[in-house]
Amino acid sequence: MRTDRSITRLERLFARLDREPEPPKIETPRMTRTRVVLFGATLAFYTAIIVAVLTTSWLVDLDWKVFMFRPFQQWPELHAFLDYFVVLGQRGPTAVMVAAWLGWRSWRQHTLRPLITLGAALLLLNVTVGAVKIGLGRLGPHYATTIGSAELYQGGDIFPSGHTANAVVTWGILAYLASTPLTRRYLSVVSSVIALGVGATTVYLGTHWLSDVLLGWAAGLLILLALPWFEPLIGRAEALIFAVRERWRTRRRLAPVLPSPVPTSPALYPTHRPAHDADQLREPVGAVAGRSAAALRTTVQRPHGARSERTPVAPAGGSRRPPHADRTPRNPQARPVN
Q1: What's the predicted TM-score (pTM) here?
Q2: Which of 121, 125, 129 is nearest to 102 (CA)?
Q3: Model pLDDT, residue 258
Q4: Does residue 94 contact residue 208 with C-beta atoms inside 8 Å?
């Protein structure tokens, strides 16, 4: 029953979507020459940071200096606000908020491209950032063991910063999917401020090294710049989903409708009554009323009627019992002599 209700609601959702006016054509971002140049520069920056940390260069010394400065102790009044602000970089809450907005856009524009693009970007983020985290195994500042060390291959998972990369991708996808140039410009500024703020907040709280945040910014920007290369795959995925939906709707329309079973009722199908009950029903009301209560009870208790009394008939040849030699026949007229 619950499955049928879900199917009915889904059909109403598609019917509502089909009644919406046709949206304007949305232009898909292309991999332009400027985007290719920015992608190459960001990739070079990404590689340089990894090399600087692997070789324990001046960048690692800067990480320790910033951590020993302890910004959360220098400006303690910001701590309460930044504890909440850093949530804008957590994957779960931000993905839910952005997916809600993109889901509404998909509804209005008759397309699944916004949601599929968000899913593809988050998948790329998990694969690329997660692989580097696990491969390098760097410990965070609060778990560092040796001053001046890069703390690599220690079983950690903070390099690059996941909060920072997630903030860049999740909020930057809104600017990437903007429908007008003006909206794209405004959303780019907003997403940049959020991403920079989340990265700086992790350094303030002491949960990440400065190099973690720099690599997180570069990792998120690489994913946004590389998304046009995945647009053909996103388009094929959308076409496949709509094709499956159409096949499912066609199968639902052509499914045979089974007739509902006719309910059985005693009024429609009367039960068989014995002959004596039918005779009683055919008796006049006065005859039934004239009977006594005992007679009625007898009639009810003995539905098959009483057996007719028959007079016993003696056999013509006398008694059927064979005579006994030791017995004398009794004479009813003979009386004992006193």
Answers
A1: 0.68
A2: 121
A3: 58
A4: no
Q: Which amino acid is at 183?
A: T
Amino acid at 36: V
Distance of CA 171 to the CA centre of its chain: 25
Cβ atoms of 118 and 141 closer than 8 Å: no
Mean pLDDT for 262-286 is 51
Report the C-alpha dihedral over residues 248, 252, 256, 260, rounded to 10 degrees: 140
Q: How confident is the model at residue 273 (pLDDT cuts 50, 70, 90)?
A: low
Owner of token pair 């006193």: 338
| CA atoms lying within 13 Å on the CB side of residue 292 | 3
Question: Which has the higher per-residue pLDDT, 338 or 141?
Answer: 141
Give the Cα separation of 338 and 334 in Å (integer). 12
319-329, pLDDT tens digit by residue?
Answer: 555 555 555 55
pLDDT value at residue 224: 94
Do residues 117 and 228 touch, judged by C-beta distance below 8 A?
no
Can you list the alpha helix ranges (DSSP code H) found in 110-206? 113-136, 162-176, 181-205
